[in-house]
Specification:
Elements: H1 2-21, H2 26-40, H3 46-57, H4 63-106, H5 110-138, H6 142-157, H7 162-179
């Protein structure tokens, strides 16, 4: 029993550190997760962690949170998944609560208001950069470019829910590459 508790606690601490010291969102956490899990603790091989990243990206939710849960489940079952989950989200929750408290106290402060304008603009730039990085690997031909453009227009216009844009992109990919003879 003590051994299990130690394993849960270790998972919590590892993912707490990752959540606390990684800025820039879920994808920014992946190199740190890989280093901790593969190099520092030897809990998985490099190929395994890449498979976990792919799986975590393919289900709903934040990739870093999903990755933490998958690793926790793999190592220590349900309670390990829960320990890793609470470890990775606790720093973000604490920081957001502190910021929210400070924000309500200083909302009328002109300097803070202008600072948040700059932060919001920087976040837009970071999201655009992440989209460009993802696009390099996803848009490999004209078909991919067309799908990306259509998805962008549908998403911005709000004509259909985003989940349907994703489903239509997947179905379109199957039909297109089947017609080209690349899949049967």
């Amino acid at each position: 029993m003590i051994q299990k508790l130690h394993g849960y606690w270790k998972l919590f601490i590892v993912f707490f550190r990752i959540g606390l010291f990684t800025f820039g969102g879920g994808f920014a956490m992946l190199p740190l997760i890989e280093n901790e899990i593969v190099d520092v603790h030897g809990w998985a091989e490099r190929e395994e962690i890449l498979d976990i990243f792919a799986l975590a990206q393919s289900v709903p939710g934040a990739i870093a949170v999903n990755t933490a849960v998958f690793i926790g489940l793999r190592l220590h079952g349900f309670w390990g998944g829960l320990a890793a989950l609470f470890g990775v989200i606790t720093p973000s929750i604490a920081i957001i609560l502190i910021i929210a408290q400070l924000f309500s106290q200083f909302q009328s402060n002109l300097h803070l208001s202008r600072a948040f304008s700059g932060v919001k603009a920087a976040v837009v730039g970071l999201i655009a950069a992440a989209a460009l990085r993802a696009g390099r690997g996803a848009i490999i031909d004209r078909f991919g470019l067309v799908v990306a453009a259509v998805a962008f227009v549908l998403s911005v216009s709000g004509v259909i829910p985003v989940v349907w844009v994703i489903i239509l992109g997947g179905c379109g990919g199957i039909l297109y590459y089947k017609r080209k003879g690349e899949i049967r």
